[in-house]
Each structure stands twice: as structure tokens, then as C-alpha cells.
Fold this sequence. Notes:
Helices cover 49% and strands 0% of the residues. By secondary structure, it is mainly alpha-helical. It has a domain at 29-107: Cytochrome Bc1 Complex, Chain D, domain 2 (Orthogonal Bundle), CATH 1.10.760.10. The relative contact order is 0.16. The model has no long low-confidence stretch (mean pLDDT 80).
Amino acid sequence: MVSARIVVSLALLLLVGSAEAVARSKPPGPVERGHAVARRVCAGCHAIDAGEESANPRAPGFATREMRHTAGLAGRVADLTRAGHYGMPPLDLTPQDVSDVVAYIESLTAEGDGDA
């Protein structure tokens, strides 16, 4: 006959395995979605990851102080993508895309801040 200790152990293993599967299948959050949008739309010119060089020298990297405005970043990204800016063409981003890209930019440690 199977002991209660073995049954409890197996039940715990199943619960832990189920919790890990749920954690792995969790939908991406704003930062992950923003990184995906940035990779798809912005990476041709901007360095979207810290420590990278921008393909276009006039396009600031996302981890630079220049890109990390603490006030009004969402409005600035929305305006720049809608109207374009200098050599940047207008882009068709949804409000959710803008919000997610801002979340991603804000998640980066600014280069030169001493926090890296």
C-alpha cells in the first residue's frame, strides 16, 4: 500500500510543477512588449539595449539620459513617432505600443548615471 508520505510528496511535486508551468506561460508585461516593439520598429536606428551603439549616430540609445525623460516621456514618444523628427520617419504606433515602449525605456538604467 502507498504511504501517506509518498502521496503528499507526489502532490507537492505536482503543485510545484503546475506553478512553474503557469509562471512560464505568463503573458508578457509592458516592459517585454515595449522591448519587442522597440526591436521591431526602432532598432534599425536606435540602440535599444544598454551598452549598444546606435546604427544611426544621430539616434540616441534608449539607455542614454537624452532618451530617459522622467516627465512627459510618453507624450514625447507619441509626438515623435506620429510626426517624425529630424531624420526619423513618422511611425504608426498604437497608444498601447507607446505606453509599452515608454515602460521599456524607463526600465533601463541610464548610461552615465553611475547606476550601471
